[in-house]
Amino acid sequence: MKISHAIAVGVLASAASASAIAWVMDQSPDAAPDSTAAGASSSQSHTGLPSGMAAGTSVNHDTVMQNTTAFVVQTAQDNAAELVAAQYAIAKSSSPDVKQFANHILTSKAHVTNELRDLAAKLGIAMPTYPTSDQLRTLNTLHTETGAKFDAEYAQFMANEHTTALARFKRAAQSTTLDPGIRRFAQNSLPSMQDNLQRANRMLASHATHSRTG
């Protein structure tokens, strides 16, 4: 069943998330393209060494590009989902802390998305502008919730997303099989990622009693 076009109500104000929202409007959760393939076709045509990697390196170039593409795709899809969810929170929530967090996400994720897009373009990686299938299902659920139930579901989604993302960024920051530019991006992003997770956990602690499992 198609996700309701109402999923985009109130969200077009964010230019950074507009492409994600447009995709969400026309897709069902089961129809989402494979995230790995999303950047693979473009990266296959990239013949140069990743930025900052000297010729003769012992790290296999194909491995570096595969890992780099996977990281870029996963991060881009996370950002797309969080931007859409933040717009929902601003439109639907009456809780000041939820709205404050959502506004913070709109600012921080828009900046991260733009930075990542520039890095991906230099590497010839096609950066997706849509969430994953699982994220789409959660977004569809968020769209149907209201009041305290919405706040709890949104807080849980944000805590889960940031826990997973922070773990991935920590691995990327130490990785020797990523493009050096992407590795630096991950390293530089860690403080804000940790701050976002702390904020999300505080929000969850305030609203978790209204969650599905609470």
H/E series: HHHHHHH
CATH class: Mainly Alpha
Q: In total, how many domains does the architecture comprise? A: 1
Indicate the percent of residues in helices.
55-70%
User: Mean pLDDT, as a whole number?
Assistant: 78
Shape: elongated
Note the gap between the termini.
Answer: 29 Å
Alpha carbon gyration radius: 18 Å
Tell me the number of helical segments per DSSP (H or I, 4 or more residues long): 7
Instruction: Name the CATH architecture.
Output: Up-down Bundle
CATH homologous superfamily label: Ferritin, core subunit, four-helix bundle
* Relative strand content: under 5%
Report the count of strand segments.
0
Q: Which structural class matches the secondary elements?
A: mainly alpha
User: Are there runs of 5+ residues with pLDDT below 50, and where?
Assistant: 1-57
Determine the CATH topology. Ferritin
Give your account of this protein's structure.
- With 214 residues, the protein is mainly α.
- The chain has one domain: Ferritin, core subunit, four-helix bundle (Ferritin, Up-down Bundle).
- The protein has seven helices and no strands.
- It has helices at 15-25, 35-43, 61-92, 96-123, 133-144, 147-174, 180-207.
- α3 runs antiparallel to α6.
- The longest helix has 32 residues, at 61-92.
- It is elongated.
- The two termini are 29 Å apart.
- The relative contact order is 0.17.
- The model is unreliable at 1-57 (pLDDT under 50).
